Amino acid sequence: MNWWRKLTGRAKPTDPIFGEHIGWTVLGSLPVRSGRIWVGDAAFAPNEADGEVVELAPGEYEGRVRWLRFGHDERAANLILVPPGAEFTRGDQLGTTWADTATQGVCDFDLLQAAITDEEEYREAYELQVEVKGSERFVLGDAVLLVTSSGFGDGSFKLFELVHEGRRVGIEVEMIGPDEPYPFG
User: Fold this and answer.
1) CA-CA distance, 93 to 78, in Å (whole number)?
2) What is the arithmetic mean of pLDDT over 29-41?
3) How confident is the model at residue 76 (pLDDT cuts 50, 70, 90)?
4) What is the CA radius of gyration of the chain?
5) Domain boundaries of the chain, sorted by first residue
6) What is the predicted pLDDT for the residue at 132?
7) Cβ(176)–Cβ(75) below 8 Å
8) Which residues lie below 8 Å from residue 95, measured CB to CB, with a gap of 6+?
9) 185 in Cβ contact with 16 (< 8 Å)
10) Are 152 and 75 in contact (CB under 8 A)?
11) Are 126 and 185 in contact (CB under 8 A)?
C-alpha cells in the first residue's frame, strides 16, 4: 500500500491537491520594546544574516498561524504578528526568510540578542523548551520567541508588511502560497 492511501484512505489523485483553510491559532503574545523584530529559522540564534529584521512600532503584539488541510495532513501556511484586534491588509513584500529546520520564529530582535550569552546556551534552552516540551513560546531571560512549523518544511518564504491606513501594523510570513499544491506524493 502506498503512503498516500495510508494517509487518506483513497487512491492518490492525479490532479494537484490544494489546501483547505481550517482556521487560525494564537501562538501567544510578544512584547516588542525595541521596535525591531526578527523573523527566521527559530532553531538558530537570531542574527541579521540569518533572517529578516523589520522595524515595527513598540507595543504588545499577538502571533497567529493560519492552517491549511491537505487530506489528513495539516500545515502552517501563514505566520502573522499584529496588535490584538488590529485591522490590516497585506502590503508590500519586505524580503524573504528561510528555514532549514522546518520552523519559523519571530521575536524582539534586540531583546533576544541581549538575552543570548552564547549560541550553545541558546541551542540548549531552545531544544528543551521547543523540541522536547513542544512549546510554541520560547522564553530566554526577558525575551520571547514565538515558534511554528514552516509550511511544507525547509525552504524560503516571502515576508510582507501588514498595513492599516498607510501605516505598518504587523508582518506576515507566507509559508504556503494560495496556489501552491501539496508537494508530497
Assistant:
1) 14
2) 97
3) very high
4) 17
5) 20-174
6) 78
7) yes
8) 52, 54, 159
9) no
10) yes
11) no
Q: Look at residues 165, 185, 181 and name the one whose alpha carbon lies nearest to residue 77.
A: 181
Q: In what order do the strands lie in the sheet with 167-174?
A: 20-32, 59-70, 73-82, 167-174, 155-164, 89-99
For residue 131, the cross-strand partners are: none
Read off the pLDDT of residues 17-34 as tens digits, 9 standing for 90 and up: 899 999 999 999 999 999
Write down the pTM of the prediction.
0.89
Residue 12 has pLDDT above 70, yes or no: no
Please say whether the beta carbons of 76 and 152 come within 8 A.
no
Task: For residues 137 and 141, give the distance between their C-alpha atoms in angstroms, rounded to a whole number.
Answer: 13
Cell of 22: 481550517
One-character DSSP codes across 23-77: EEEEEEEEEE-SSEEEEE-TTSPPBTTBSEEEE--SEEEEEEEEEEEETTEEEEE
Backbone phi and psi for residue 109, each to the nearest 5 degrees, phi listed first: -60, -50
- Pairing type for strands 155-164 and 167-174 reads antiparallel
Find cell 522564553 and name the residue: 139
Residue whose C-alpha cell is 502590503: 91
133-154 pLDDT, tens per residue? 777 999 999 999 999 999 999 9
